[in-house]
Amino acid sequence: MKYKKAQNILPAHVLEVIQEYIDGGYLYIPRKSNNKKSWGENSGIRKDLKRRNREIFKRYNEGISVKDLTDKYYLTESSIRRIIKQERECV
Q1: How far is CA 47 from CA 40, 51, 79, 85, in A?
Q2: Mean pLDDT, the chain cut into blocks of 10 residues (91 residues total)
Q3: pLDDT value at position 63?
Q4: Which of 88, 91, 79, 89 has its CA nearest to residue 49?
Q5: Nearest-5° angle of CA 20, CA 22, CA 24?
Q6: Residues whose CB is less than 8 angstroms from the CB of residue 54 and which lie 6 or more positions away in sequence, other chains included
């Protein structure tokens, strides 16, 4: 998130009203609820994790052990088992 100067964006009368509440401080203005994006939507991490999880499940089905998967993906055994369970439910 980039900071923007309020005086460059807001009309003067709106800026004056805001200054009555917070003069010179930082103010976070949340997105409108219909514009909110879900976690990972901007960065693409959600898509990457989904791809990784499918790959883990595929390798597990090919006979790769949970222990070997933990070593390859640097995840705990419980995380690998959770991923396998979730992917199994999707199939």
Answers
A1: 8, 6, 18, 19
A2: 87 94 88 76 85 97 97 97 96 78
A3: 97
A4: 79
A5: 110
A6: 87
At 1 the pLDDT is 66
Q: Give the span between the Cα atoms of 50 and 46, in whole angstroms.
A: 6
Dist CA 87 CA 15 (whole Å):
51
Distance CA 40, CA 48 (A): 9
Q: What is the pLDDT of residue 43?
A: 80
> Residue 27 is which amino acid?
L
Of the candidates 54, 87, 86, 56, the one whose C-alpha atom is nearest the C-alpha of residue 70 is: 56
Model pTM above 0.85: no
For CA atoms 31, 37, 42, 43, the dihedral sign is positive
